[in-house]
Amino acid sequence: MPNRGKFIGNDNLYVPDAPTIGTATADDGSISITFTAPSDVGNDAITGFIATAFTGSTAIGATGTSSPIEITGLTNGSNYTIAVSAVNDYGTGPLSSASSSVSPLAPRAILGGGRISGSLINVIQYVAIASNANASDFGDLTLTREMLTAAGNKTRSLFIGGTT
Amino acid sequence: MVSNVIDYITPTSTGNASDFGDLSVARSSPAACSNDTRAVIGGGYHGNHPEYYSNTIDYVTIASTGNASDFGNLTGSRRYPKATASTTYGYFAGGYDTSNNLVNNIDYITIASTGNASDFGDLTENSINGGGGASSTRGIFAAGRHGDGNGYNMIEYITFSTSGNATDFGDLAGDDRHSGGLASSKTVCLIMGGYRSSYYNDINKIIIASTGNATDFGDLTNAPYNVGGVSNGHGGLA
């Protein structure tokens, strides 16, 4: 129940102030957003948070009781910004500022270089891991080689060492 | 010729690779793993004689370009190891030691630091070649070549939260093969290509959270082995 006799905010609003937005991290069909709860909780304790992903005129939300909140059901390849609001028994507070734009991604398996029979190759090929499809051509390595290794993150894949 | 080349691509696009920088020491058949920030490269060889097998661990900051820096050393020199990573730790497994024996050692390092590797546990068998994949909790090793000529279809896993030996996961679908490439999302690991008596263009799929045999996924554009496999959504990424 609203705690109307014990006003604990400092700006005469009954609802909480906006959280401070943190970092948005994209995954396959989802984005996880971190945030910091507002110090001014309004006239009652915060009961939860709403994180909303915006792309064009579309908004998709998710709720949670603490940071981070994961928003699912998003479209891979679309750009989203995220904003978070805090909730107490009086209602929903204002939105935070928007996060940087991020895009959910469908992870790709990427294979580079190697040997086919007696010939070394520089071929890079890829396939969407969720697809069950055949691989497609990606491009070429800078150097034809086998017995190389590879590692990477969401934005860069490295092909390392080997024998030419 | 043994290469020190590091090149890179943007995995969400397509196109040719660009130059990133150089390894601290040119070497063939190293293993590499990464978290969001760093790629760590361990082992390999820069000459066929065992004295040229390497225990070097290098690292690069993925967001930058530039040459690799020294990280530390594996617990021993290893030719043809394989690697996987959690968000915190990198794991290097198997390979030839400097007596040309296949080993089952699994080393681990803390990716965000520098320093020498420590012992984590053992593979289920001595093996070389192959690669690694990962969910947020499990590391997968497969596509290895075994000294006794058996077990080429073996898939095994480690649990990141508990130091210890690897556990059998299941078997590849279809014929035995080795030296294929691995790449995973946080839920699915693909084992691609490889060679034994034939060259293989098929892709095997496992669900990392399960244990069980692989299923057929699809085909590569060709049938390579001695490849480098990587993904942009593996369990080493937050």
Write structural notes for this entry.
The complex is a heterodimer of chains A (164) and B (238). Chain A has 2 domains: 1-106, Immunoglobulins (Immunoglobulin-like), CATH 2.60.40.10; 108-160, no CATH class. Helix content of chain A is 0%, strand content 44%. Chain A has no helices and 14 strands. Chain A has strands at 20-27, 30-36, 48-55, 58-64, 69-72, 81-88, 91-92, 108-112, 115-116, 119-120, 123-128, 136-140, 149-152, 157-160. In chain A, the strands form 5 sheets. A 4-stranded antiparallel β-sheet of chain A has the order 4-3-6-7, with no helix packed on it. Chain A has a 3-stranded antiparallel β-sheet with strand order 1-2-5, with no helix packed on it. A 3-stranded antiparallel β-sheet of chain A has the order 8-11-12, with no helix packed on it. The radius of gyration of chain A is 23 Å and the shape is elongated. Chain B has 238 residues and is mainly β. Chain B has one domain (5-219): 6 Propeller (Neuraminidase). A 4-stranded antiparallel β-sheet of chain B has the order 3-4-5-6, with no helix packed on it. In chain B, strands 7-8-9-10 form a 4-stranded antiparallel β-sheet, with no helix packed on it. In chain B, strand 3 (31-34) and strand 4 (38-42) form a beta hairpin. The mean pLDDT of chain B is 95. The interface between A and B is large, with 57 and 74 residues. Strand 8 (108-112) of chain A pairs antiparallel with strand 21 (228-231) of chain B.
End-to-end distance of chain B? 37 Å
Number of strands of chain A: 14
CATH architecture of the largest domain in chain A: Sandwich
What is the H-and-E element order of chain B?
Answer: EEEEEEEEEEEEEEEEEEEEE
Report the portion of residues of chain A in β strands: 35-45%
Number of helices of chain B: 0
Average pLDDT number of chain B: 95
Biggest chain contact: A-B, 57 and 74 residues
Q: Spans of chain B with pLDDT under 50 lasting ≥5 residues? A: none
Dominant shape of chain A:
elongated
CATH topology of the largest domain in chain A: Immunoglobulin-like
Assign the structural class of chain B, choosing from mainly alpha, mainly beta, alpha/beta, alpha+beta, or little secondary structure: mainly beta
Helical percentage of chain B: under 10%
How large is the radius of gyration of chain B?
A: 16 Å
